[in-house]
TrEMBL record:
Source species of the chain: Clostridium manihotivorum
A biological-process GO annotation: ethanolamine catabolic process
PANTHER family: ETHANOLAMINE AMMONIA-LYASE LIGHT CHAIN (PTHR39330), ETHANOLAMINE AMMONIA-LYASE SMALL SUBUNIT (PTHR39330:SF1)
Biological classification of the source: Bacteria, Bacillati, Bacillota, Clostridia, Eubacteriales
Annotated InterPro entries: EutC, EutC_C, EutC_N
Cited function: Catalyzes the deamination of various vicinal amino-alcohols to oxo compounds. Allows this organism to utilize ethanolamine as the sole source of nitrogen and carbon in the presence of external vitamin B12.
NCBIfam families recorded: PRK05465.1 (NF003971)
Location within or outside the cell: Bacterial microcompartment
Keywords of the record: Bacterial microcompartment, Cobalamin, Cobalt, Lyase
Cofactors named for this entry: adenosylcob(III)alamin
Protein name: Ethanolamine ammonia-lyase small subunit
EC numbers on record: 4.3.1.7
Reaction it catalyzes: ethanolamine = acetaldehyde + NH4(+)
Binding-site list for adenosylcob(III)alamin: 169, 190
Root EC class: lyase
């Protein structure tokens, strides 16, 4: 069926009548489709998408919307032993409309973090829902053990893992300042697209603080089963953290 769509696309769009050229174009389309989840060589009905393509777009858009408005399964973070906190955001609607509140904690929450979490560590691991809760629910169970095992094998002191509800990336800065961590990383749900609603990113910074620039963060993105698998991403993150600790810098200051 997929090859029929490609034939239809080439029949409608090709300026060449040479069958050899069309055969080469068809092979090229097949190779491209195998290499990317992007919507290419889909065929059309007149000037519009085919019905099946349109319905697929609508379905994937619904998945993206659900990713933003859903919540992380807290059983996952509980099983992994995360200390749970919440930013100043009160609900999902406020999270979307007031990103500034997702970067801050109340004084009481900061006090709770300071009293209940290990301080002066080499690496502080944080997980936050971000703009895709399914990203954390789907990937955290695989990536977190890899991070812990890899970092402990290198002899690093790890902090108490923290889960932040209604988190933004800069959440990591406040936690780093309170706990005095050398390297702080946050695993956070990416803004969902039409290819997946489960993509997660890892932002890392050496001596993260609210005084530092966004460009001073090192990022590993597109972490999900159809992108960079969580276990593979975990191994890469461990290697990067080793470099951050050695060079005592992160982001664009770090020459990899």
């Amino acid at each position: 069926m997929e090859e029929d769509l490609i034939d239809n696309t080439l029949e409608n769009d090709s300026n060449s009548s040479d069958s050899k050229d069309k055969h080469l174009e068809k092979e090229g389309c097949i190779m491209l489709k195998q290499a990317t989840p992007a919507r290419i060589c889909l065929g059309r009905a007149g000037t519009r998408y085919k019905t099946s393509t349109y319905l697929s777009l609508r379905a994937d858009h619904a998945v993206a919307m659900d990713a933003v408005w859903s919540y992380v399964d807290e059983k996952v973070v509980d099983e992994l032993g995360f200390f749970k906190v919440q930013t100043l955001v009160e609900d999902k609607e406020q999270y979307i409309t007031r990103p500034d509140l997702g970067r801050c904690f109340s004084e009481q929450v900061l006090k709770d973090i300071k009293e209940n979490c290990i301080k002066d560590v080499d690496v502080q691991i944080i997980a936050g829902d971000g703009l895709s809760s399914p990203a954390i629910t789907s990937n955290l169970k695989e990536i977190y053990p890899m991070l812990v095992d890899g970092l402990k094998a290198k002899g690093y002191k790890l902090g108490t893992p923290i889960f932040v509800k209604y988190a933004r990336v800069a959440t990591m800065d406040k936690i780093s300042e309170v706990l005095n961590a050398k390297v702080t990383l946050i695993l956070i749900g990416e803004r969902p697209g039409l290819a997946t609603g489960e993509s997660m990113s890892c932002y890392m910074a050496y001596e993260a603080s609210s005084k530092k620039l966004e460009s001073q963060r090192t990022v590993v993105s597109n972490i999900h089963k159809n992108g960079m698998p969580p276990v593979e991403a975990g191994a890469q993150i461990v290697q990067l953290i080793e470099i951050l600790l050695k060079e005592k810098k992160s982001g664009i200051e770090l020459k990899l």
